[in-house]
Design a protein that fits this description.
Elements lengths: L8 E7 L6 H5 L10 E4 L4 E3 L6 E2 L4 E5 L2 E4 L31 H11 L1 E7 L16 H20 L6 E2 L1 E2 L6 H13 L4 E4 L17 H10 L2 E5 L15 H6 L1 H13 L3 H4 L5 E4 L6 H15 L11 H8 E5 L3 H5 L1 H4 L4 E3 L13 H8 L5 H15 L6
Parallel strand pairs: 1-7, 3-6, 7-8, 9-10, 10-11, 11-12, 12-13, 13-14
Antiparallel strand pairs: 2-5, 3-4, 5-6
């Protein structure tokens, strides 16, 4: 088996469920009755992910300002059989404690054979975009910075060798965004989660110069920009009556959009030290999309306002990393992608996670891969990228 005992699994995509009191305990008193809080729904609640579902009164939900948000049940299904999965919201007493308790999470990681992980938010959505909807922008900013303080103080500080610190930003305000990047850099954060496309959120695109101060701040802080599937709020839903299986099967197309958008934008030309990971999109599509991008560049660059000298594939191999749980096709074509461009994910406690069998299933997936390549993919690439050496 190629996954030897001395190889430590480092997941670049796990998630946590925020415990009920995070914001109530940390926000200034004047914001407590408007900030995020858990309650029992007294009216019909809509899910926050846009699947068109509603949840009945009595459901345990979050409230933010006057809006009710029911979380998708698939966000906290670790330990359940596949036949038990569903989209109905899950109460805290129905989750295993590792979803929201850091000590229990470490125990679950030990059971799973996972050494370290990056944690994406849940209630704020994976890039903190929930707070972009808050009318009171000072409350929105405080909600964002509160999450960062919470993750550091309750998760990272007690377990500094287990959790790689990643923060969210008040990205609706560029000055506050830059200031928060600088604050987080001073606190030792290694990464920022950011929307894979800001345009659907009503913000300028990567093709504008709006984000330049932010990208420069990320470069100066030597942080990684983590673009998680679906953070734009535009998952690949083909029709209102299409089953969720369509969206789940097409998740990688979200990552394809983000990759091509960045490769044909000015971002990497203006920010030569910027590094981007594409979370939860798989990797099997990467060889094709880079071939297609280079072909498009060769044929069409002369009449377009795009870079005329550097192939998109060259930019990818300098600036971008692909992330996957298991991906047979991508693993077979790993040399075309670049061994140093590949990162492993666990995705606990989501429905794609293999917990508590991640180590076993990962070993089986890499049975034909040389040991030195396995080690780079499951551990050392992530440690190098996120500046997170073994303790």
């Amino acid at each position: 088996m190629p996954l030897t005992d001395d190889m430590q699994l480092v997941s670049v995509d796990d998630h946590l469920i925020e415990r009920p009191g995070v914001w109530q305990e940390r926000l200034p008193a004047k914001y407590k009755d408007r900030g995020p809080r858990i309650t029992e729904a007294t009216v019909e609640a809509h899910d926050q992910y846009g699947w068109g579902q509603t949840f009945a009164p009595g459901t345990q939900v979050w409230m933010l300002e006057d809006a009710v948000h029911a979380q998708l049940g698939l966000n906290a299904v670790a330990g359940k059989e596949r036949t038990e999965l569903g989209t109905d919201p899950v109460r805290f007493d129905e989750m295993i404690p590792g979803c929201y308790d850091p000590a229990e999470r470490v125990r679950d990681m030990d059971i799973d054979g996972v050494q370290s992980a990056i944690l994406f938010p849940s209630f704020p959505k994976f890039a903190g975009t929930m707070f972009n909807t808050v009318e009171d922008k000072e409350l929105a900013r405080l909600c964002s910075t509160t999450w960062n303080d919470f993750i550091k103080e309750e998760w990272v500080d007690p377990y500094p060798d287990r959790f790689i610190p990643m923060g969210i930003l008040p990205f609706w305000n560029i000055e506050e965004t830059v200031a928060e990047v600088q604050r987080l850099a001073g606190l030792g954060f290694r990464a920022i989660t950011f929307p894979e496309n800001p345009v659907p959120l009503g913000l300028p695109s990567f093709h504008s110069d709006h984000w330049d101060p932010f990208f420069s701040a990320v470069e100066d802080a030597d942080m990684v920009l983590c673009l998680h599937f679906g953070t734009s709020g535009k998952p690949p839903i083909t029709a209102p009556d299409a089953p969720m299986a369509v969206m789940v099967s097409l998740m990688g197309t979200n990552s394809m959009y983000a990759t091509i958008d960045l490769l044909f934008s000015p971002v990497f030309h203006r920010h030569p030290k910027l590094r981007v990971s594409i979370a939860e999109g798989g990797i099997g599509w990467i060889p094709y999309i880079l071939e297609r991008a280079d072909s498009t560049w060769e044929r069409h660059r002369f009449y377009q306002n795009i870079n005329q000298t550097v192939r998109p594939s060259e930019l990818f191999h300098k600036h971008m990393w692909g992330c996957f749980i298991t991906d047979e096709h991508g693993t077979k074509h790993r040399d075309e992608i670049g061994i140093d461009r590949l990162l492993w994910e666990c995705d606990y406690p989501h429905s794609d996670s293999n917990w508590p069998n991640s180590r076993k299933i990962t070993a089986e997936a890499f049975v034909d891969v040389p040991d030195d390549e396995v080690r780079r993919i499951v551990e050392t690439n992530a440690r190098d990228l996120f500046r997170f050496p073994r303790s």
